[in-house]
């Protein structure tokens, strides 16, 4: 995984109210760009012991000022928190570099996953997952701590993991960056499906290790510009 420089996004230790707003923005951005629907969730780490997950409802319906729930990284999930949020727990435990996690259901990723395939690094967005994201080859929902631990282990140090017939999970150094990564993942899946549709007679090249290391950059406000695009028009963006 290629790490970018420090971004303009929120930091650990900020007031909880600021993190609540950032999580709401992230939730509505994912919904606005059809990366989630009735299902999905997004979270941001608060500190070494807790994280904040969005309200347990369709993310596009989360209202201004509607707070999410604080969840312990270790220990049982609070009663009103969705069962698959245990994946966030296990990822935050295994990955101290991760401060944002989103569970998404992009249409093209869903389709591609039914072939037991994940997108290769054929375009610039795909370079962030070079050579390609891992596949969680189990179509069932993750409803136990044992599954969640194995899931986080399968993710490894990648930026995303594709779930066969069940969407994906994306991670980042901030909640904003994990949302951007979800957008990159779906764009990469669209290209992969186009290449598959073109057939074996068409040669499609992938990024080399060296090319991917250079292209998967965080400079030039790469993440920030897409975040601005994805949150444009949100009533809480400028508050």
Textual characterization of the structure:
It is a single chain. The chain has 239 residues and is an alpha+beta fold. It has one domain: L-fuculose-1-phosphate Aldolase, CATH 3.40.225.10. The chain has 7 helices and 7 strands. Strands 3-2-1-4-7-6-5 form a 7-stranded mixed beta sheet, with helices on both faces.
Strand order, sheet with most strands? 3-2-1-4-7-6-5
Q: Which fold name corresponds to the CATH topology?
A: L-fuculose-1-phosphate Aldolase
Radius of gyration based on Cα positions: 17 Å
The CATH class assignment is Alpha Beta
Query: What's the β-strand tally?
Result: 7
The percentage of residues in β strands lies in 5-15%
Taken from the alpha-carbon principal axes, the silhouette is globular
CATH superfamily: Class II aldolase/adducin N-terminal domain
Largest beta-sheet details: 7 strands, mixed
Q: Mean of residue pLDDT? A: 94
Number of helices: 7
Structural class: alpha+beta
Kindly, what is the distance between the CA atoms of the first and last residues, rounded to a whole number of angstroms?
A: 33 Å
pLDDT < 50 runs, ≥5 residues? 1-6
Name given to the CATH architecture? 3-Layer(aba) Sandwich
* SSE succession: HEEEHEHEHEEHHH
Estimate nothing, just give the exact number of structural domains: 1
Specify the helix fraction band: 25-40%
């Amino acid at each position: 995984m290629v790490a970018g420089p420090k971004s303009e996004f929120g930091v650990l230790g900020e007031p909880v109210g600021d993190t609540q707003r950032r999580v709401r923005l992230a939730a509505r951005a994912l919904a606005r760009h059809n990366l989630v629907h009735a299902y999905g969730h997004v979270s941001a780490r608060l500190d070494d012991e807790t994280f904040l997950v969005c309200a347990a409802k369709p993310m596009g319906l989360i209202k201004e000022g509607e707070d999410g729930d604080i969840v312990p990284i270790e220990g049982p999930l609070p009663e009103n928190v969705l069962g698959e949020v245990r994946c966030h727990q296990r990822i935050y435990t295994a990955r101290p570099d991760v401060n944002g996690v989103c569970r998404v259901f992009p249409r093209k990723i869903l389709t591609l996953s039914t072939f037991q395939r994940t997108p290769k690094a054929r375009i610039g967005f795909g370079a962030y997952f070079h050579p390609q994201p891992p596949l969680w080859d189990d179509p069932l929902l993750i409803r136990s701590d044992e599954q969640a631990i194995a899931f986080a282990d399968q993710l490894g140090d990648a930026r995303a993991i594709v779930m066969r017939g069940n969407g994906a999970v994306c991670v980042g150094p901030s909640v904003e960056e994990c949302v951007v990564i979800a957008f990159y993942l779906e764009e990469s899946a669209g290209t992969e499906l186009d290449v598959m549709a073109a057939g074996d007679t068409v040669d499609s090249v992938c990024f080399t290790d060296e090319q991917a290391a250079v292209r998967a950059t965080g400079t030039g406000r790469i993440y920030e510009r897409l975040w601005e695009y994805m949150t444009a028009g949100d009533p809480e963006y400028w508050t």
